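Forum: Protein Structure Q&A
Topic: Joint prediction for protein chains with partners

I've read a bunch of threads here and the consensus seems to be that you should model interacting components together rather than docking separate models afterwards. I'd like to see that in practice. Below is the full input, 825 residues plus whatever partners are listed. Could one of the regulars post the assembled result?
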Amino acid sequence: MRVCLQRPTILFYTFIDKKIHLGQGKGGCSVRRPFVHASPLSRGMADVAVVADKMNVRDALNSALDEELTRDPLVYVMGEEVGQYQGAYKITKGLLEKYGIERVRDTPITEMGFTGIGVGSAFYGLKPVVEFMSINFAMQAIDHVINSAAKMLYMSGGKISVPIVFRGPNGAAAGVGAQHSQCFAAWYGSCPGLKVLMPYDAEEARGLLKAAIRDPDPCIFLENELLYGVEYPMSAASKDKDFTLPIGQAKIMREGKDVTIVTFSRQVEIALKAADILAKDGISAEIINLRSIRPLDRPCINNSVRKTSRLVTLEEGWPQHGVGCEIIATICDESFFYLDAPPERICGADVPMPYAVNLEALAVPTMDDIIRIVKRCCHRGRAAA
Amino acid sequence: MAALSSLRVVVPQVDITRGASGAQGAHSAGAVGDKAFFGLRSGQRLGAEVGRVTLRGCGVAVPAGNVRATAAASKVVKEKAKSEKAQLLVTKEEGLELYEDMVLGRSFEDMCAQMYYRGKMFGFVHLYNGQEAVSTGFIKLLRKEDYVTSTYRDHVHALSKGVPARQVMAELFGKTTGCCRGQGGSMHMFSAEHGLLGGFAFIGEGIPVAVGAAFSSKYKREVLKDDKADTVSIAFFGDGTANNGQFFECLNMAQLWKLPVIFVVENNLWAIGMSHYRSTSDVEIWKKGPAFGMASAHVDGMDVLKVREVAKEAVARARRGDGPTLIECETYRFRGHSLADPDELRSPAEKAHYAARDPIVALKKYLLENELATEADLKSIEKKIDDVVEDAVEFADASPLPQRSQLLENVFADPKGFGIGPDGKYRCEDPGFTAGTAQV
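Posted by a regular:
Agreed with the consensus. Here's the joint model:
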């Protein structure tokens, strides 16, 4: 066993000894004697994920982190509960046991502090992967994400680059309330200097995270909590330890000729199911999975709309200034005269996420919404050729 | 005599005047309390013991700097403790009130766990079992118009503050009869009527809010010349929060502006799975107060009577205008961080140690031993609380889910978002107002 494994416990004991000398703590004293805690590591619970034919998104992310930590000693992981707790969502399970406390760092609850520390270390060539327990918590650190990381290369005249990755679950989950459910794709996507990635399935999660970690620019990697446990088939190529996906390239999930649906993250799944139902009604929908909000794959979207002549954008975030707005703008810029109908946006409701279960269901797009809007788009204006 | 009756509060005397002369104590001129715990006496010269002082009771050496404990202070602590032995800390009514409040908190949280596992509640639910003494000890001393802020572990703070159990349970079920109409949820309990200002998912977020509420109280007093404005606000938060930047910023500003706020750290040693000892360079949180010149205390948070004694002093200080206090309460949560937490990292020995110090059991013992209440009294309280909690569940079950139309309500206070016109009414109510005209 590596020495690192023992270190957490050893540090713990020396700490206790120091405290005993300082005080004869007997009830009522402010110095409490820490108890000895068994770590799940010693119980053999934590194992790094193995790449397989079918993986869930959680394991795919875990395997990507594992491979990148092995490949490059400058990579390290930092965040709340990433180490001993095995990750708040278990994305980093087994990593502490394998790489030790210097490379898998549990932090106090200090988003602004540890994000800034990560950014500063990236200036000097380290490659931090900073985990936010929820991307909503990144709002406490957004100053560093934008001002220290995204703008740095520009402000320094190209001299200081920031090869950092910020990652965490983004957007609505189930019943977690207004402060845990915001989608940040649009906010981060509007900032030049920051790459914004939003994977959908396990293969994308793996490929894009590996690409982001190897990337010289700051990347923010927006995952989805509801997809963590969902299994997807993995291609043979994706099992390779150097498998990376290109950033800034969308994927056409399903070819079609009547309407283009542009979406990302969890809504891809729902759009694919809606497309099956629409096909029965004679509407052939082309589904584009953006994968990357910034840089946005404008050629892909435009080529698709030139083919189908109709556009529907789909996202879970708020409508005003959302990702859909940028997609529609790019179509109007480049492919306006190819449109047969006004472009439609399907977004989350323009309210903070309510807690009540029925209101929450109304606040996020559903399959019925997609079908209804696509049909409306297809039956409005000139008929497609 | 029950062990609870001896008061063991360790308080450093805080000297905010640096330099040799302690005589320019910059603090409330009038209210020189006779309690040496927190009050700095104007004109009092500092005692001979400057430098390293051993605080009574625990032998912790406190370095000099901002904190200088006078010999007089320790002596007063000793004397007070001795005289306390002869007196009871609560009357029968108070004791029963405290007992009822703690039992309500405990039963309610146990019911929440049941309801969660039955699927009636969802999302994140963080239970307060084991920490009731802190909530009851502080909040029962407040008035209805005083303010409380909390974190996501806020059900019991809401109940102690007076929000009816029915409304809290309905909110947890996401029904329209909940205190936030079902829009907030477990982590976002608000009640304007009861002065409960949340309920925040981001820890540390409640602290500036509480300080702001205290600011409004001081503002009303000084700018609006309302002599009756002496509301106090309390911010409850945990050990993990004490590492967050907002905490330090607020300690500084609250002390600088001498705001009537109390910072209560519910130190239960764990922030999800992160032990306090692994995440904090100096684990004694109460020591962070003196760094800002703030009076602070550490108290056994599993003992409601001790908490109450300290709280009385802190609340009195705040109401007098003597400024903020930082109080670290040593406490423990019997359940995991949330109902989704496997709780594998805490050792069974630690859990057993604190289970033996259950605050409700301790108070019961105190009341019975000092003949403040009989078994029958306590049993009847427990029965009453069972009924209250059952009734709350039935009410919440029977309440309707919010209407569809409620989804878009309450985004703005202003009905149409056009603002207020020169006549002081909403522009959208003015029949002559046409939307989109900048001139109007």
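Chain A touches chain B through 58 residues (CB under 8 Å).
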